[in-house]
Amino acid sequence: MSITLEQITKRYGGVPVVNDVSLHIGDGEFFVLLGPSGSGKSTLLRAIAGLTAVDHGRIALHGRDVTRVAARKRGVGLVFQNYALFRHMTVADNIEFALRVRHMRARRRRERRQELLRLVSLVGLDDRLPAQLSGGQQQRVAVARALAHEPEVLLLDEPFGALDAKIREELRRTIREVQRELGITTVLVTHDQEEAFAMADRIGIMNLGRLLESGAPHELYSRPATRFVATFLGAANLFLARSSAGSIQLGAATVAAGEPPSDAREHEVVAVVRPEEVAVAATRAALGPAFVGAGVVDEMVFSGALERLRVRLENGAAAPLLATADGAAATCLEVTRTQHEQRAFALRAGQSVAIGVRRVHVLPTPLSSFAACAASAPEAETLARQPLLAELAARMKTRIAVRCEPQLGAAGERTAADAPFVGATVIASEAGAAQRAAWLLERGASEVLVLPAQAAEPQRVLIHWLDEAARAATLAVSASVLRHVPAEAVYVGILPEETRAAPRRHGLRWLLEARSEAQAVHGLEMRTELRFGEVAQELARRLAEAPGEMLIVGVSDLERFAERFGALLDGGRWPVLIVHRAARGTVGASP
Amino acid sequence: MSFRKPSVLPGFGLTLGFTTFFLSAIVLLPLAALVLAAGSMHWSEFVAVVSSARALGSYRLSFGASALAASINVVFGFILAWTLVRYEFPGRKLIDALIDLPFALPTAVSGIALTTVFAQHGWIGRYLEPLGVRIAYTWLGVTLALTLISMPFAVRALQPALLEVQRDLEDAAETLGATRFYTFRRVILPTVLPALLTGFTLAFARAVGEYGSVIFIAGNLPMKTEITPLLIVIHLEQFDYRGAAALGVVMLLMSFAVLLTINLLQAWGRRRHVRAAH
């Protein structure tokens, strides 16, 4: 039986724990929901079971809408982490519970029970009490009990959490066999990526209530789309690299880009290098064009088949390293080597080596890093410590550079900046911010974040673009931001005041198109609102309506930018992220 | 007798000796004195005292009202404990503390307070009077007083047991197709049954021994609203120590019989589980 989730949202005290999740799970599929604790995966599972009512969205089992159907009528079987067996009942009574509820005849019950006990390899334990069984056996009973009424969906909530490694392995195999034998659609919730790899047909990765990506395990591992998935699913080294037509510059190495870049101009990207794709050699010559930089072996850990190394990059040798899998030291590269590689080139701690990369995967994320920018260094440093910015950068596993531009916002000759602006440039929200933002955008900054000093984590992110040319980029940036804050996305469509009386059909269609594009291309679910009036004024009015708003606005035409957005940006209480993409065919403002 | 492994507290011999002495001095010795005092009576005299119509009436009221009060407390104590364990609401801590109040209050104060409220012209009594319901100075009043003072025992016995009924159990039952009532009857109730019995026992024992609060609201009409403890006091006031002791012994035996029965029931329940397992 297939499971279809449409825009499922569940809030606790206003905070979305499950945020606009849409997902289709095919008939007979084994789907694993993977995520750290608190990512909303268990809540989503309970919503499918019918134990948690959703605030918004639709749940369908094999096309039948069950959103308002009680759990006991949904025909699902649920297995809990702590088994949840009825302790005053024997194994037989536990398994027959669902059959007794359905008034099944004693003989038929007994037959079904025997069949189930065979299925989970517990024949002969009918008369035991749960307390007399081991943890693994108890969980097998729980699985048998959940399958007794022949549900069409089996839901498993961290079923191996309380078991030790060996039992876990055995039970995993049993569950996988049972699932194949019955062909039952199964959803398993876990925080253990190894478990996900071992069992899943498809994995869906959740963080902060959002379903970030879903796909076959090998696909997600080799081609993740987001930083979170890249680092959560297996270990990953993240680099800031530079991408230009067809190739990627990573330290000293130039690697061919796997896929044609969406953006032809040179820009900063986040590159993923898996530990097993890092090559270590004695000399630069041995690595050839794969050479990235020099390093020193910091730590070596033997772990059976593989050897784990931490290699510290020598200063200035390589591209800026963002974070390793554990998110700790951003100066050490994680490397794993097979026995074969170890024999070919034995290492010891403290040894100097040359480092190369065999395969680089570039994340499609448009927000690579942040640069706090102000007219003086102390101001820029203060800005870089702004809590929301620091939190965002930490979640994105990226860095905040500090940049001093003495001429920032100065009127007059359009002078080029000394160095190109990379990543998102951050300026303080104060008087003259609009002027400064315009100054930066004219000099090639593609994203400018105007940030008030007291800005806290937003609860809603409003999205709007002024020109169609900026639409794709605005949606991409919004999706990237929203993967890292547990906020709602709201697309604000604004039509001129004089169209208010006219049929709204045109405006509505436009809204729906924006929504479906966000969903299709970025997996971003957003609500939509339609307003009438002058764009900048309406946006300012909308932002002031409730606290906790953030605005992402896309522009392509910078004409009179500072004038138009002065009211919105100069000392506003809300963070505004401006995304600038020049319209196709016109020459960019950047020199 | 098997000696357990030594624990943190040293000296099994010392602690066992102390336990025996303490129990003897505080519990057994006074009880023995009671039995001895009654024992000095002639058998026919003893029977005459304990089976007088007035005594029989008082037993009926004492044990009947206590059993009723304990039953009420098991039902409503369950709801109270459930609310406190399951829900998080403003004032929860306050209500939790209020439950212990009958523990701390001198029982005479409780009695006076109840009388004030439920007497013929009291706050509530005056509205019940036209309906023909009289609480003060009837067996209803006795039951009410006993319910009040034994309530904490039932709630406190149930609370820890309910804490252990994980919500997962209910969720599991629900996904297996059980209705709420079925889940309550087949899953929750059996799980907390031992605690329910304990709560009943404690509340009952407390109510049987109660004196202070009842005498104010009972009116103490012989045969009607006179509880056994009061009858004992009346005997004492007439310097009939032996008669008082005789009634005391009867109370002792009946209470012991009730408590023992409940304990045996619990043990039987446990044994049945274990037997079912083999």
**SS-derived structural category of chain A:** alpha/beta
Count every helix of chain B, treating DSSP H or I runs of 4 or more residues as helices.
13
Q: What's the gyration radius of chain A in Å?
A: 27 Å
Oligomeric state of the chains? heterodimer
Low-confidence stretches of chain A: 323-329, 586-591
Q: What is the 3D shape of chain B?
A: globular
Number of strands of chain B: 0
Percentage of residues in strands of chain B: under 5%
Q: Describe the biggest sheet of chain A?
A: 9 strands, mixed
Q: Note the overall shape of chain A.
A: flat
Judged by helices, strands and strand pairing, the structural class of chain B is mainly alpha
Describe this structure in words.
The complex is a heterodimer of chains A (591) and B (278). Chain A is an alpha/beta fold and 591 residues long. Chain A contains 17 helices and 30 strands. A 9-stranded mixed β-sheet of chain A has the order 23-22-24-25-30-29-26-27-28, sandwiched between helices. In chain A, strands 6-7-8-3-9-10 form a 6-stranded mixed β-sheet, sandwiched between helices. In chain A, strands 11, 12, 13, 14, 18 and 21 form a 6-stranded antiparallel β-sheet that branches. In chain A, strand 27, helix 15 (505-522) and strand 28 form a beta-alpha-beta unit. Chain B is mainly α and 278 residues long. Chain B has 13 helices and no strands. In chain B, helix 1 crosses helix 13 (241-276), helix 8 packs across helix 11 (212-218) and helix 12 runs antiparallel to helix 13. Chain B starts with 11 loop residues before the first helix and ends with a helix. Classes of the chains: A alpha/beta (591), B mainly alpha (278). Chains A and B meet through strand 6, helix 2 and helix 4 of A and helix 9 and helix 10 of B.
